[in-house]
Amino acid sequence: MSRRVPRWRDLRPLLQPRAPELDPVKRAHTLRDLRAAAAKRVPRSVFDYVEGGADDEISLRRNRSAFERVEFSPRVLVGGEVSTGTTILGRPAALPLVLAPTGYTRMMHHLGEPAVAGAATQAGVPYTLSTMGTTAPEDLKGTDLWFQLYVWRDRGFTTDLIERARGAGYTALVLTVDTPVPGNRVRDVRNGLTLPPRLGIKTLLDGASKPRWWWHLLTTEPLRFATFDGDGSLAPSDIGTKMFDRNVTWADVSWLRETWGGPLVVKGIQSRHDAKRAAEAGADAVVLSNHGGRQLDRGPAPLELVAPVADEVGDRLEIYVDGGVRTGGDIAAAVGLGAKACLIGRPYLYGLMAGGERGVARAIAILREELERTMRLVGANSITDLDREKVRLRA
């Protein structure tokens, strides 16, 4: 083959340098990218609060490793268009996805829960406000808002919370049942995490490289548990050990069923037995969850419970799953095994820390793109086409 000296007209089409993208949200192609950007935006103690689990974080790792066992069995030459739409508790949703409740949300970004609710509304998926949220139920706006509830020792206060959620237009009540006592979150203990953050020497040194985060913290409304702690004087440790009722039983679930009257979700189910009890108590849905590995260490990976629980009670209530969801392919896998939807917490908090509402919107968009691509590759044109013929867990 003969060779020649390259000419300018041959090189010019190849020399088209692009300006580097400096916006970490626009630059993110995966949730890992948003996670990396988030780690650069907030102090270490805040990032560890999001990332950490209980004790040795065995459950935390198992949650993710369960999804690594997923194997798809694709169908080819299917043709047609893909739709990710579904219904959740009888309401339309653009994705089989719910944004889970997270505490201390304005600690991650000063815009907090309103930014998350705004992104969820634009994406057409439900968002769940936590009892431990930093925005009051009445101050949050959205088209499909759920309210997460811990049962308090003061049943009158619990009833007041339910009435506030009803009056503010929340469409579902989510009872968290896996927190009779707080988990041993070692990272938070070692970091001395408090709300609001205390300006100790370690905190100041950690925050010195995050001046933007500190500026927003110091120039916006003080952090507090807006649902119940009016002056911000209540310590987080007091809430878990003195105010939450560790003696809640299935009778209380039936009581909530009657008191609330609307759709009731029980979050924190970790066995077929308890899923059956939830159905008998009148729950409309259960969340198979170990609290993101933040409560009982060495608990079961929720994904591994989906198929057996679906076989047990899938005809009586909706089944959701959380813990370890990091891609749209994970959502496809969970649905294929029998879940109606996935809940995510850390994934959207990565986006929130990286870029506020835009970051949350980008996290949801990434999951949507990945879910659509997975569905096309696996040969599923609709969410109902995802089933156990296309998804299984390897031994």
Automatic annotation (TrEMBL):
The question of whether Flavoprotein is a record keyword is answered with yes
Where does the FMN hydroxy acid dehydrogenase domain lie? 23-395
Keyword hit for Iron: no
Q: What are the protein's UniProt keywords?
A: Flavoprotein, FMN, Oxidoreductase
Q: What are the names of the required cofactors? A: FMN
Q: What is the enzyme's main class?
A: oxidoreductase
Name of a matching Pfam family = FMN_dh
A molecular function (GO) held by this record is: oxidoreductase activity
Recorded hits in SUPFAM superfamilies, A to Z, give: FMN-linked oxidoreductases
Q: Which Enzyme Commission number(s) are listed?
A: 1.-.-.-
Looking up PANTHER family in the UniProt record yields: 2-HYDROXYACID OXIDASE 1 (PTHR10578:SF107), S -2-HYDROXY-ACID OXIDASE-RELATED (PTHR10578)
For this chain, the family text in UniProt reads: Belongs to the FMN-dependent alpha-hydroxy acid dehydrogenase family.
Q: What is the protein's given name? A: Alpha-hydroxy acid oxidase
Species, as recorded: Kutzneria chonburiensis
